[in-house]
Every structure is written in structure tokens, then in C-alpha cells.
């Protein structure tokens, strides 16, 4: 769904190849135009177990060769125990009201280069500054700004860290980050430390200690840090959300979400992603690399962090065969990808338990043939919805075990979709709805639909599924990033239309 290819990932060696004696797995392809900003994210950071469980991580080793991944730890309350709060909660904290939202964009590849069109299409938004080390992409994006009738934006193209200068500007309210995953944490952190609200494409970070640091920074700086999960704003997702809150499914019992999307061709395409950064993550982690699209919507249905919370995750993974087979069939001998060793799993399946006993199933598969599906299902004591294709069965509306027509429930559409029935942009319009609503909450001084606690919760399956798979499915504790405040019901995505 999100293709943030503005900057490539640094080369890295698979942690599992070092730990388990498999073949060498390096990029070595000369694609990268950037120096090593960090080592290879989760796997290449020289971390200890604390980085996964929320404790204190070992210092990062100044090397591109990562330390072996630590053994998984069983789920317990100790591993998910929250560190002491360093600031006041950001739950229920509104934005400052402003007539114009001034935006800085970092990363102008596939995702950022298209999302800029939507920021420019929303009233009351001005794109002030742009950053990408690929100058052609920055120049093309700058032309879009002036073509929209706005002043020429400032541009930042001088290497890996020029985004820091963008974040230091005094005329930016919100920083939008659409870069490869390795850089998300550092960029979100820098934005908040410079007094900016920040929204980041998925996943917001790759380690539990990083997620905790973003939570603490948001609370300490009083700046919102948000996972920009566009799938939460899909028409079907928002309709199901409102139906769930109206009690149409009865007492909620289970849900499922996924990112099953055949990306083999794109991951081996040298022109689509700038460098092999996305493919290289398949040499580093065994778990669910991209849980947010599936987890976010179902978490909203179940009011996770707003009356319920995710407590544990158990994950299982298949062998890693798909990418190697695709490479064998499509890539010439001598291609740099032949130096890579892919580790489990082509498909991960995770089960998340909530405090109320509900179960959420998550899936991830981008390495095998499969029609696109986010699954997007929800079931309760009164019936069930399943997407891809959409179908519904709820009592007393349906009988005889025959699926009903979901289109007949259009009255439950969220007000955003009733007002923007044909939104511009990709992904069926959900991108525009997300940007419109976020900018609206900033202009009107409202509480955002989701916050840093949601961002951390939706991303926690990345490191925890990896640990669970290595521990043969042993459950891993999901931290309570709200520090107990999840018990209180509060508004979220199911918003009321505000008065302008």
C-alpha cells in the first residue's frame, strides 16, 4: 500500500545468517545513494533483549554488521511493564487552532511524491518545505507546489541529515515523513524535538525501545506523533466501525486484518524502489513486517486503547521460498540480489489477544502469488462482516446462512465519506480522506483521531512477531503504551462532524 522509496536502505547482513550459519546476505549492489544513517534497523542495531521488551537496549554498534538477534522471551507482565512516565499523557490533547496548516514533507519517492498532491488539494494547507536527497524528485515536487498557486517551497537536498534543517524551521506546524522504514524513528524524533507535530508512514519504528521513546517524546514535547494509517479511513472500514459502535454485530468477539499483496515484481524492479531497501528487510526479520494496515482498522472496531487493549501476540511463519524462487526465474546471474539470503517467513500468521478476551488474526505475505487482500473482518454475537469480497451476515437481517449485501448498509457511512463521496487520489480515496481529516483537526484545534499510543500499539507486532516465530509461537507481551489509561473509553475514528 505505502511505497516510500525516496531514500534507500543501507546494506546489511542478515542476523539469522550470522546466528544460524546460513549464507551471506548483503546488498552490495551499488544502488544506495545515501551513507549509512543507522545500521539495519531492528536487526542491525546491535541490540539486547531489552530493545524488544521495553527495557534498556544495548548501545548501537558502529558497524554495518549486525549482532545476532536475541532469543525470544515468553510473554509476561514483566516484559510489557511500562517505564515511568516522563511527561503528561497526550490522550485527549487537541491541536492548537490555526487558520493555515504549514507542512514540511520529508521523502518524495512513490509515496511522498503522490501524497503532496493531496496536501495541496486540501483547503487551508500550505506546503512550506520539501526534503529528499534525490534533487530531481525534490524539484518535481516543488513544481507541483507552485503550480497549485502557492509560494515556492524551501528545498533540502544536501545529504542524509538535511531533514534536520527542515525540522528546525520556525514556519512549519506539521512534518510528514514518507521515507524507507529505517529512517522513520529518527525523523519522527527530530521533528518533535524541534517542536513539530509529525505523521509517519508505516511502520513508525522497528523496535520496542524506539516505540517507547516516541511515546515519551510525544508526552514530553507536547507534540503529536501519529502513524498515518490510511486504511483506517477506507469507506468499508469506516462503515464497519460505525456499525460496530451501533451494536449491529452484538458483542464483539474476533476480527482479522492483513497485508497480503504480491510485491515480488516490484521488490526486484530496480526502477520502482530506489535501491533494494524493502526487499532487504526479508533478509533481516522473520515476522510481520507490515501489520498496520490490518491491525489498525480492527483495533478501531474493538476500541483498543479506548476501553480494551492488546495484551499478547503469538506468531507463526512459513519457510521463506517465494523471493528466492522468483529470483531464480527472473533475475540474471550476477544480479546483486543473488548475494541475499531470505529468512522466514513468506506468510506470517499472528493471533493477538485483548484484555477483554477478543482475538485478532493478522497476516502478512508479499512474497507469494495472491490477489490483494487486507481480509478486514469483524465478528460478534450478532453476526460477521468479511471483506475481499465484501459480504455481511447479521441477525435478524439475514437468515438461512446466506450472505447479505453490504451496500444496503450505506446509511452507516461515516460523515467524511458522505461529504467526499468521490475523493481524489489513490487507494480508493482513503488517502485524501485521511489527509483532509488530519488537516481539519489541526485547523480547528481538535483532538486527532489517533495518537502516539495507537502508533506504538499498531507497530508493536513488527518486533514481537519476529520474537514469537523464533520461539516457535510462544506468546509475547504487548506493552501497555497508555500506562493504564486504556481502561477509559474515549473518542477515536468514529468522529462527529465538527463545526467550521
Could you give the topology of this structure?
Blueprint: H1 15-20, H2 50-53, E1 101-106, H3 110-121, E2 125-131, H4 135-147, E3 154-156, H5 163-168, E4 174-177, H6 184-193, E5 197-200, H7 208-221, E6 225-227, H8 235-245, E7 252-260, H9 264-267, H10 277-280, H11 292-301, E8 310-317, H12 322-330, E9 348-354, E10 359-365, E11 377-380, E12 383-386, E13 391-394, H13 415-419, H14 430-444, H15 452-459, H16 461-470, E14 476-477
Helix pairs in contact: 3-4, 6-7, 7-15
Task: Give structural notes.
With 500 residues, the protein is α/β, with parallel strands linked by helices. Helices cover 28% and strands 14% of the residues. An eight-stranded mixed sheet has the order 13-12-11-7-10-9-8-14. Strands 3-2-1-4-5-6 form a six-stranded parallel sheet, sandwiched between helices. β2, α4 and β3 (154-156) form a beta-alpha-beta unit. The longest helix is centred in the last third of the chain and has 15 residues, at 430-444. The chain is globular. The chain starts with 14 loop residues before the first helix and ends in a 23-residue tail after the last strand. 54% of the residues are buried.
Amino acid at each position: 500500500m505505502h511505497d516510500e522509496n525516496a531514500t534507500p536502505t543501507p546494506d546489511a547482513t542478515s542476523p539469522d545468517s550470522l546466528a544460524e550459519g546460513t549464507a551471506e546476505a548483503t546488498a552490495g549492489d551499488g544502488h544506495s545513494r545515501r551513507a549509512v544513517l543507522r545500521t539495519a534497523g531492528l536487526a542491525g542495531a546491535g541490540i539486547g533483549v531489552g530493545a524488544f521488551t521495553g527495557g534498556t537496549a544495548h548501545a548501537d554498534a558502529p558497524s554495518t554488521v549486525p549482532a545476532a538477534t536475541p532469543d525470544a522471551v515468553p510473554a509476561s507482565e514483566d516484559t510489557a511493564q511500562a517505564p515511568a512516565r516522563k511527561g503528561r499523557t497526550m490522550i485527549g490533547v487537541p491541536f492548537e487552532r490555526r487558520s493555515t496548516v504549514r507542512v514540511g514533507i520529508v521523502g518524495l519517492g512513490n509515496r511522498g511524491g503522490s501524497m503532496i498532491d493531496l496536501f495541496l488539494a486540501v483547503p487551508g494547507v500550505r506546503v512550506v518545505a520539501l526534503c529528499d536527497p534525490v534533487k530531481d524528485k525534490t524539484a518535481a515536487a516543488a513544481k507541483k507546489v507552485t503550480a497549485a498557486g502557492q509560494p515556492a517551497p524551501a528545498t533540502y537536498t544536501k545529504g542524509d541529515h538535511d531533514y534536520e534543517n527542515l525540522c528546525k524551521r520556525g514556519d512549519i506546524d506539521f512534518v510528514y515523513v514518507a521515507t524507507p522504514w529505517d529512517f522513520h524513528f529518527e525523523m519522527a524524533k527530530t521533528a518533535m524535538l524541534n517542536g513539530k507535530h509529525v505523521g509517519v508512514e508505516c511502520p513508525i519504528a522497528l523496535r520496542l525501545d524506539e516505540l517507547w521513546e516516541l511515546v515519551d517524546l510525544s508526552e514530553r514535547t507536547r507534540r503529536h506523533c501519529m502513524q498515518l494509517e490510511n486504511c483506517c479511513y477506507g469507506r468499508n472500514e469506516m462503515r464497519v466501525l460505525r456499525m460496530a459502535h451501533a451494536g449491529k454485530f452484538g458483542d464483539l468477539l474476533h476480527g482479522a486484518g492483513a497485508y497480503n499483496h504480491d510485491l515480488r515484481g516490484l521488490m526486484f524492479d530496480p526502477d520502482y524502489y530506489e535501491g533494494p531497501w524493502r526487499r532487504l528487510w526479508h533478509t533481516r526479520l522473520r515476522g510481520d513486517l507490515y501489520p498496520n494496515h490490518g491491525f489498525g482498522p480492527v483495533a478501531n472496531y474493538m476500541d483498543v486503547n479506548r476501553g480494551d487493549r492488546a495484551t499478547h501476540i503469538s506468531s507463526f511463519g512459513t519457510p521463506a521460498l517465494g523471493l528466492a524462487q522468483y529470483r531464480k526465474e527472473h533475475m540474471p546471474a550476477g544480479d546483486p540480489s543473488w548475494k541475499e539470503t531470505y529468512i522466514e517467513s513468506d506468510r506470517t500468521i499472528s493471533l493477538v489477544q485483548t484484555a477483554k478476551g477478543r482475538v485478532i488474526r493478522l497476516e502478512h505475505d508479499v512474497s507469494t502469488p495472491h490477489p490483494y487482500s487486507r481480509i478486514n473482518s469483524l465478528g460478534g454475537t450478532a453476526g460477521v462482516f468479511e471483506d475481499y469480497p465484501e459480504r455481511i451476515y447479521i441477525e435478524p437481517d439475514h437468515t438461512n446462512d446466506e450472505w447479505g449485501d453490504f451496500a444496503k448498509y450505506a446509511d452507516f457511512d461515516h460523515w467524511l465519506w458522505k461529504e467526499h463521496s468521490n475523493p481524489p487520489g489513490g487507494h480508493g480515496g482513503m488517502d485524501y480522506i485521511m489527509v483532509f481529516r488530519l488537516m481539519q483537526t489541526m485547523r480547528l484545534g481538535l483532538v486527532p483521531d489517533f495518537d502516539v499510543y495507537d502508533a506504538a500499539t499498531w507497530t508493536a507486532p513488527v518486533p514481537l512477531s519476529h520474537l514469537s516465530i523464533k520461539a516457535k509461537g510462544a506468546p509475547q507481551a504487548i506493552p501497555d503504551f497508555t500506562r493504564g489509561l486504556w481502561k477509559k473509553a474515549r473518542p477515536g475514528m468514529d468522529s462527529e462532524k465538527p463545526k467550521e
